[in-house]
What does this fold into?
Amino acid sequence: MKGKTSIMPNLPERLGEMEDLAQNLWWSWHPEARMLFKMLDRRAWKESGHNPVKMLKELPADTFKTAAGDSGYLGHYDAVLSSFKTYMEAKESWFSRTVADSSSYTIAYFSAEYGLHHSLPFYAGGLGFLAGDFLKECSDLGVPVVAIGFMYPEGYVRQRIQEDGWQESLDQVLDRDDASVSRVTDEKGNQVIIEVPLTDPPIHVALWRISVGRVPLYLLD
It folds into this structure.
């Protein structure tokens, strides 16, 4: 967290690296990482929709103080953070061992939607989850992928069956400030906006980033 402004001011220094973990979706497919958040407050974890950023921002300082003084919790914390750092800093991977030096390649992957986790509701269904799983697998294998997609401001809809048997669609809006997603900013801290000269007037697109393990996903807003 050095050199960064924390969005979770209640986190004590001993647990400070939990913010970096929450901002990377590596936690979403590693049960031991999800348990780290759940152990803080099981009810808050459930009420947040299993969204670590939202939960960590809302938990009181006393909860973190208790965790920072619990040797059992700290042991689990240190083990998870060690695994996360080892994963992110690994120099070798399946791709580098069996295909080529990953630093010599950059593979662009495009999808209209990504189903990564239910705390990021900008997907519709099966193909989105396929794309999301593809990014997670590329991260595990060290495939040098850069993913591109869309940030839907209103998200998608959640569908349910009413008592009379008819389908109902409920708007599910993503609060981007309370999720594992961040603005892409320039050296002055302003969100990067690019111009797409496809029409007159041209389209302007703001950029967001989601870290899916070692794979960056850029969303066009």
